[in-house]
Amino acid sequence: MNHQQFESWIFEQNDLSSEEKNALENHIRQCSTCNDLNNKWQVIDQHLHSLSDLSPAVGFTQRWKTDLAERKQQAQRKNTVKILFILLMVAIILFFSLLFIYYKNTSPIEIVSNLIQMFLQISIRLNIIKQSLIPLFNSLPVFVPLLGWLLLSSGFFLLVISWLLLIWRVSTQGVFLK
Amino acid sequence: MDDQISEWIKLSLSGDDEAFAKIVEKYNKNVYNMCYRMLGTPQEAEDAAQESFWRAYQALKRYDFKRSFITWLLSIAAHYCIDLQRKKKFTSFSIDQLTETNIASDAPSPETLASQSEHEKYIQQLLNSMHPKDKAVLILRYYHECSEKEIAESLSISVSAVKSRLHRARKILAEKWKSEQEIAHYHERKRNESSAI
Questions:
Q1: Tell me, which fold does domain B3-196 have in CATH?
Q2: Where are the domains of chain B?
Q3: Residue boundaries of the structural domains of chain A
Q4: What pLDDT digit, counting tens, does each position of B172-197 carry?
Q5: How far apart, in whole angstroms, are the C-alpha atoms of residue B1 and residue A162?
Q6: Which of B42, B53, B167 is closest, CB to CB, to A11?
Q7: pTM to 2 decimals?
Q8: What is the DSSP annotation of A38-85?
Q9: ipTM of this predicted complex?
Q10: Which residues on A lie below 8 Å from B167 (Cβ)?
């Protein structure tokens, strides 16, 4: 039998049959290298089996709970960003698909001329609105007192602030569902 | 499997985080010990144990009730520690370099050290110098007393691979192991060095 086999047996003495154990004992008596290895291994094996039971610092479970809450929040934030990104992508794809369907039988020159026409019409309409609103704003101060203007503008300002806060909260902390 | 553990797992799956906290309370020592033996420092072991429980929490729906829960949990911890050490580009060093390692910078807390024998500290130093997977096999076999089949399942390797890794790990330990006198001398020298500083 080769030397390598005995070396393996030294490490696995609990799994050996009685015949194998006898063969190993005989070999160890004759071979000084295997005898040394066996002596060393007996000591190591004993120490490996008696490794002490270490404990984490006190409060491990509490730290786990805190950690879990933080990780869940992070996961929610990631999810919100992911959903917003998907919605944005869907909107972009939808927009370009509709654009393609609408203009699929139109030449590029026609598209450009249509766009110019559309912008012109928008600017004309905006101008008409502006023309009709200017006399109204000129005459309004007579009917609405200064305090009324102040109240209206502060209300509008508060609405804008709360809207921005809401967007910030949803994007950073996500939406909590009970 | 323990009925209570089964119940806690089912409750956790239905969204009861307190039930999972009970699992953490019950098994934190096992997971922490696995991580400590794998990584060698209390801080790294704490972080790795927390991360292992988080991974187990996320993967709980994939848990097979036929398997031993503790083996499943330890396999998550072992895989995480192996990955961590691979990322750190773990380098094996010789026993001569090992004796020159500054224990103070890498050593467990005084409380942990007090509970460990000189031999145990020496074994931990030897473990630190081993290949992560060999080390995991050895820890699962000796500290957690897992069977070769359980180790194979935990580390996603074959039983023959477990046997060969176990043999290699044991051989490395035996080759690097110094005599009792040498270990005592080594620790004495370290103590003198640190007191001189």
A1: Rna Polymerase Sigma Factor; Chain: A (1.10.1740)
A2: 3-196
A3: 3-49, 71-105, 106-145
A4: 888 888 765 566 666 666 667 666 65
A5: 53
A6: B167
A7: 0.67
A8: HHHHHHHHHHHHT-----PPTTHHHHHHHHHHHHHHHHHHHHHHHHHH
A9: 0.72
A10: 8, 11
